[in-house]
């Protein structure tokens, strides 16, 4: 399958597990990940998702061996990597639950794109981010041309993509590419703490908030207010909204169930 899955106390940890290939994304891995994301979306026990990598890398992007084999047999444009990657990335970005990328090492190409599809990116001080496209006389192909201008601005996105230099974690943090940076030995504990907080939160409201933010750039203020009203009505009918009101009246912390 190319990755492991473990779910504890509402947190689902998906760990890419091809360390010898630096957790590269092959077509079978991409398709299996898409299925896992679908199941995570529908599973009420999953209230936050963490994506990490085994070994020294987070994700090296596309599987170069698979790519070379497709080129050798004349199927480079049709072997299905792009379609599989796009389907998985779209599902991950739209997942109606919080998603954290635990970037434990190098993220290259589609590995960067994978992290960009997450809501938050926590990096190790040993992490590096590299687009990897123009060095191969190629252009972004798994979402970074959409994410980067929104996260770090157009000019910085051009710097990252055109010059194709690896950005160390601190540079990525300064640019706004990552959320926080931690020492390698402290990274997982920091991510686990954040994931636990999110998993104990109002999951349905998080999903509505993610959807509203994604839609906002395409709408006028009046249009967005209308969407907020509709989403607010749905949130107001949730069990978590009832619990929040009761907790406020009783002057205690709410105990959300994610419903």
UniProtKB/TrEMBL annotation:
Species annotation: Dasania phycosphaerae
Official protein name in the record: Enoyl-CoA hydratase-related protein
InterPro entries registered for this protein in UniProt: ClpP/crotonase-like_dom_sf, Enoyl-CoA_hyd/isom_CS, Enoyl-CoA_hydra/iso, Enoyl-CoA_hydra_C
Gene3D superfamilies given in the database record: 2-enoyl-CoA Hydratase, Chain A, domain 1 (3.90.226.10), Lyase 2-enoyl-coa Hydratase, Chain A, domain 2 (1.10.12.10)
Gene Ontology terms, MF aspect: catalytic activity
Any matching Pfam family: ECH_1
CDD domains per UniProt: crotonase-like
Coiled-coil region(s): none
Family: Belongs to the enoyl-CoA hydratase/isomerase family.
